[in-house]
Amino acid sequence: MRQKTQQKVSPIIMSLKNIDFWYWSRYYVDIYRTCPYRCSYCNTQSGVPMSGVRFLPGLPKEPRVIGLGLLCDPYHPDEERNGTLANILEMLYEMKYPVNILTKSNRIVGHLDILKKLSQKGLVRITFTILTPDDLLAAEIEQQAPTPAERFKALETLTKENIPAGIAVTPIIPFITDSEESLSRLVRTAKTHGAGWVLFSGFNPWTLSKDLPCLKKFFLHSEDEQNLDKRYKAIKRFMVGLLHQENLPIRIPRITLKRFTNRYFSSLVSETLFNISYLYELLDSELEMLRYRRVACDIEEMNSSLKGLVSSGKLGHLKGISPEIESVVREVLFKGTSGFYENLYSKVAPEV
To answer: 303 has which bridge partners?
Structure first.
């Protein structure tokens, strides 16, 4: 692959054991070995190897969604060092591989032309990590990253060009970024700038972060696990209600390929089952969450015809499937939507 700069870069390609159903990708490309932003809350800075990851010599043989930004932000603060990424995006476009980008950089607008081409083919999703609308607070917890204001501006630039983009409030850090006023302002600002979805998650601190002054407020309260758990539940309840009120999805719309093949139907069904499992997770219903997730993983890996399996009455052979789950599978296969999911989401919004 021709480099646009003199920088020597050796991108690595990784495969996850199961699909990452947050970003709908099983295959990731990382350009750097160390993230240039080194944010205080990021557990990829811990150096602990991730489980369920293997390294590949090349891309999968047929188009699959390729994620950028699993371990390191793909966009470097030095604009001249982003030539490699431009080449990768052009190559993926030519090969018709969809791209799912996670970043906290406004440098992405420098690749507007190739992103527009990917968008016109329905081959791209972009998510900006933004934890707070407050530039001063952001400067404390992610000192080297572009300001939230710069990221919002980049978000607006992309969405005005009809490039699908949203934000990830991942993680929400209790006692630091979790005030209702701050989260409300963050979500509404994102919506004003064109965000098509908002993801959110809790905080999983890494060991060395205990020594960072900017996270001191969190660790002062972290030993009271019961109170921290109550706070997390309150955050979930508030965020789901807020996003429901603002009519913003809590999941990224999946990119599906080969619309009229067996793989398409399996992907559509597994997406719905993964989304239902997430709703049960928000409801703290662990057993239902695990049941739906297990069946979703099995269907995701299926190479045979899912419709054929249903028609022959063999769907019950899948581990963990129940009459309720089988009903959802049939509904999605033959109607393209799931009333069960819509009803459950309506229940989750006021009850989480």
So the answer is: none
Cβ atoms < 10 Å from Cβ of 94: 9
Residue 44: predicted pLDDT: 66
Write out 61-129 in H/E/C secondary structure. CCCCCEEECCCCCCCCCCHHHHHHHHHHHHHHHHCCCCEEEEECCHHHHHHHHHHHHHHHCCCEEEEEE
Taking the C-alpha atoms of residue 255 and residue 140, their distance in angstroms, rounded to an integer, is 35
Q: List the one residue out of 184, 186, 188, 4 whose CA is nearest residue 87.
A: 4
**Distance separating alpha carbons of residues 93 and 186, to the nearest angstrom:** 32
126 vs 53: which has the higher pLDDT: 126
Where exactly does CATH 1.10.150.110 map onto the chain?
Answer: 262-351
Q: How far apart are CA 238 and CA 130, in angstroms?
A: 18
Q: How is residue 166 written in tokens?
A: 């949203």
Q: Which CATH number fits domain 12-245: 3.20.20.70, 3.40.50.1400, 1.10.1660.10, 1.10.3730.10?
A: 3.20.20.70
pTM of the complete model:
0.91
Strand, helix or coil for residue 155:
helix
Helix (H/G/I), strand (E/B), else coil: 137: helix
Q: Residue 2's pLDDT is what? A: 41
For residue 167, report the phi and psi dihedrals to the nearest 5 degrees: -130, 160
CATH 3.20.20.70 boundaries in the chain: 12-245
Looking at the structure, give the CATH architecture of the domain made up of residues 262-351.
Answer: Orthogonal Bundle (1.10)
